[in-house]
Specification:
Length: 389
């Protein structure tokens, strides 16, 4: 067969390791702690709101940049949660998941030769996003302890070609919740080099031990140069609904809405109506969400430590990077394959979060957005691992 005539961009992609692990998980009937999707139900009142919207025949295209009701609810939520005053008419775009939002932001901002700063390890979509947008990524390492960046290394990544920085906060895969001090450093550099910050705040409500979530856009001088991306997937346990949000100043929003229109037209109309209900949920919903995730974090992390993994309990998001050295493992991919095929637990090899693959070879990522019984089943299976002294 003739090889397909793929574009240079498409031929640079490889199969998503995370989704590939989910396929392996199904094949080997493994407990899936790879892909970050909850296995517990979405809130009943939210599902009812979606059913009501379909019954009410909200079944045709919504306004391309998002239903008015949803944009208004997002603005209300941003006011109390992020401390941002946002005009729903001119500063919000609703997309098909935050995944589309990130691509729209980069497609709208990048010209050939522009550089985008990414922290490394990074959420695996960011690199393909850069390829699609034609950006050259420049990496700033996040390292334990604390999985944070060195301020000098961050400063050294900025130059005349830097167009944007992508910051995932709370961070997938490391669980870092960047401190105000870290965010101030990012803000100062963005202002000095005239750079746009694109923040992925999809885990904005999943923060532990009483830490606050600070939106970069709320820092002095940043409102006009920050694109705040989030969505419903993680906060409301509806990863399949595909509702993402972008908050940005009017001039950027104008461009984003056009690109978004040509990419996808719009997100599912009835689910946007349900979204308007979701963003107005009482505040104790969010407190319980964080508390429940904290209990899941503690359940999995304490067991992993007992079994012999090395880790720092994450401060936010619902993943933990676990060091595998104690088991004599030197290759994360081989180790992950062993876990899924022999022990029946799917994880993500650490190297898939790095461009410099060797930096991730000593760890795997577990996710814990799962019911207690799912986590317990995985833990029981992992107890068969032997520590090599
Ligand atoms: C950091 C990060 N951003 C974005 C996404 C995808 O979000 P959405 O479902 O809104 O496209 C994920 C999903 O795992 C994620 O971890």
């Amino acid at each position: 067969m003739q090889p397909p005539l793929l574009s240079h961009k498409a031929s640079r992609f490889t199969e998503s390791v995370i989704r590939g692990m989910s396929v392996e998980a199904a094949k080997y009937q493994a407990v899936n702690l790879a892909q970050g999707m909850p296995d517990f139900p979405a809130p009943a009142e939210l599902k009812a709101a979606a059913c009501r919207a379909i019954e009410a025949d909200i079944n045709q295209y919504a306004v391309t940049w998002g239903a008015k009701s949803l944009r208004e609810a997002i603005a209300e939520h941003a006011s109390w949660h992020l401390g941002l005053t946002v005009d729903p008419e001119t500063e919000i775009t609703v997309t098909c998941g935050s995944t589309e939002a990130m691509l729209v932001a980069l497609l709208s901002l990048i010209n050939p030769g522009d550089e985008v700063i990414l922290t490394q390890p990074f959420y695996e979509n960011y690199w393909p996003d850069c390829v699609l947008a034609g950006a050259t990524p420049r990496f700033v390492p996040l390292r334990p302890p604390g999985w944070t960046f060195d301020h000098n290394e961050l400063a050294a990544a900025f130059n005349d070609r830097t167009k944007a920085i992508v910051l995932c906060n709370p961070n997938n895969p490391t669980g870092t919740v960047f401190t105000r001090d870290d965010l101030q450093a990012v803000a100062a550099l963005c202002q000095r080099w005239d750079v746009t910050a694109i923040t992925d705040e999809i885990y904005e409500h999943i923060v532990y031990d009483g830490r606050p979530h600070v939106a970069l856009a709320s820092l002095e001088g940043m409102r006009d140069r920050t694109v705040t991306i989030s969505g419903m997937s993680k906060t409301y346990a509806v990863t399949g609904w595909r509702i993402g949000t972008m908050i940005a100043p009017m001039n950027l929003t104008h461009a984003f809405r056009q690109v978004h229109d040509y990419v996808s037209i719009g997100a599912a109309a009835p689910l946007q109506e349900a979204g308007a209900f979701a963003y107005r949920m009482p505040r104790d919903y969010y407190a319980k969400l964080a508390a429940d995730y904290q209990a899941r974090r503690d359940r999995l992390c304490s067991a992993l430590l007992q079994i012999g993994f090395g880790l720092e309990p994450p401060h936010g998001a619902y993943y933990v990077m676990a060091d595998i050295s104690a088991f004599g493992a030197t290759d994360d991919v081989v180790f992950s394959q062993y876990l899924v095929r022999e022990l029946g637990v799917a994880t993500v090899p650490g190297s898939s979060f790095f461009r410099d693959k060797e930096l991730g070879q000593q760890c795997v990522r577990f996710c814990f957005c799962k019911r207690d019984e799912t986590l317990d089943k995985a833990i029981e299976r992992l107890r068969k691992l032997k520590v090599v002294v």
